[in-house]
Automatic annotation (TrEMBL):
Protein name (Swiss-Prot/TrEMBL): EAL domain-containing protein
Family annotation (Gene3D superfamilies): 3.40.50.2300, EAL domain (3.20.20.450)
Native source species: Stenotrophomonas nematodicola
Segments forming domain Response regulatory: 5-125
Highest classification ranks of the organism: Bacteria, Pseudomonadati, Pseudomonadota, Gammaproteobacteria, Lysobacterales
4-aspartylphosphate modification, residue list: D55
Domain EAL: 142-395
CDD domains: EAL (cd01948)
UniProt-listed Pfam families: EAL (PF00563), Response_reg (PF00072)
UniProt keyword terms in alphabetical order: Phosphoprotein
Chloroplast among keywords: no
Transmembrane segments: none
């Protein structure tokens, strides 16, 4: 385990010492303690902590005010909430912290045990490993002209990478989500957040959508040559449905490159919507009439609603990671997740959980009847050729272990 510095903020001396002893027992952990939130803010200003473990219910400056003050600092350590407060209050505190840009590794109800601390430190180790490349991506935003972006799209620098989706029934990779990446000649491989705002600003979302669709169909053709039929999901900002000809254009492009509409699913993102609701429903219906799949993305966050889920001809529902993360420990999240999965099943939808990062979350989703999962526990997004190699490796391993599961991905 790497070396990490942890600050424990707890106003009760016994609890503070008890927590400190458990953290100090772990190798590579240096622990400081504090019983006053205002003082803890000063400590975080002068010393760089990797993790702050804080109570919520404290006299004077409480845990919520402490988190708000922490978010105003240049360095924001990761956070764990430890409290006897209700699960709903803890969940609200978590959402508040995350909305301020703070990573919350866990919510631990009192009393905390050694196993809880061990799991939290394992999460800290994983998050710290991810932070190195993430820090590069968090540098100054990319500056590029419309002409430069068009060249990057047409020249294939901006293209699709694919994140695998695994079946919880067979344990095999059965689908993928296309995620946009830019292989920048100067800045390396950039994730979408670095340049999508520029794509939107310059009105290039339709061009990017067509480009990702073409790249996805071409990748599917290569995978079919290997013997695999892999459906691919593609993000579609709903405001593009204001263009009434979009479904026709997408179908024409798909068929022109040898694609199969049934093997493509458009995920309607919740980051935008149409000015008039009729355009949304008209576009959704026409996409389904053309044979494409349709998914409600990010269900459980933001604008997504049960009404929209039952009123739109979706074939799939993507459960947002906000409902997945911590579902194995949080009874409220567990109940909400069970309700969403049960509703999706009754509606006949394929149910996909995104953002799966732990074995405990995976086991919970399997017990609740979720169909597919994606997330860092399975794989990050990878280039199409790497995805093909992954399929071959998995098929070879599957045959070797002779688990008896049929390979539903193979072309017939």
């Amino acid at each position: 385990m790497s070396n990490h510095r942890v600050l424990i903020l707890e106003d009760q001396p016994f609890q503070r010492g008890f927590l400190a002893n458990m953290f100090n027992a772990a190798p590579g952990i240096a622990t400081d303690t504090c019983g006053d939130a205002a003082h803890a803010v000063e400590m975080c200003h002068w010393r760089r902590y990797d993790l702050v473990v804080t109570d919520l219910m404290m006299p004077g400056v409480d845990g919520i005010q402490f988190i708000q003050a922490l978010a105003a600092q240049e360095h924001r350590p990761m956070l764990a909430l430890v409290s006897s407060a209700s699960q709903r209050m803890m969940a609200s505190a978590r959402l508040m912290a995350e909305s301020l840009g703070i990573t919350v590794l866990g919510i631990l109800p009192k009393p905390v045990g050694p196993a809880d601390v061990g799991e939290l430190l394992a999460q800290l180790e994983l998050a710290s490993a991810d932070a190195a490349p993430a820090s590069t991506a968090a540098e100054a935003p990319i500056v590029a002209s419309r002409e430069r972006l068009c060249e990057a799209i047409s020249g294939g620098q901006i293209t699709a990478w694919f994140q695998p989706k695994k079946s919880l029934d067979s344990g095999l990779v059965v689908a993928a989500e296309a995620l946009v990446r830019w292989r920048h000649p100067e800045h390396g491989t950039l994730q979408a957040g670095r340049f999508l705002p520029l794509i939107q600003q310059h009105g290039l979302e339709p061009a990017l959508l067509r480009h990702i669709l073409k790249a996805s169909v071409q990748a599917q053709a290569r995978w079919r040559e290997q013997g695999f039929r892999i459906p691919v999901s593609i993000n579609l900002p709903p405001h593009l449905l204001e263009r009434s000809s979009l479904p026709d254009e997408l179908l024409e492009l798909t068929l022109a490159h040898g694609g199969v509409p049934a093997d493509l699913c458009f995920e309607l993102m919740e980051s935008s919507t149409t000015h008039h609701v009729s355009d949304y429903y008209a576009g959704a219906c026409r996409l389904r009439m053309k044979g494409f799949g349709l998914a409600q993305d990010d269900f459980g966050q933001g604008l997504s609603s049960v009404h929209n889920l039952v009123s739109t001809p979706f074939t799939e529902v993507k459960i947002d990671r906000a409902l997945v993360r911590g579902c194995a420990r949080d009874p409220a999240l567990h109940s909400a997740l069970a309700t969403v999965i049960a509703l999706g099943s009754k509606l006949g939808l394929n149910i996909v959980a995104e953002g799966v990062e732990t074995d405990a979350e995976l086991a919970t989703l399997r017990r609740l009847g979720c169909n597919q999962v994606q997330g860092f526990l399975i794989s990050r997004a990878i280039p199409a050729e790497t995805f093909g190699a992954l399929l071959d490796q998995e098929k070879a391993a599957h045959r070797h272990t002779d688990l008896g599961h049929p390979d539903t991905r193979a072309t017939r």
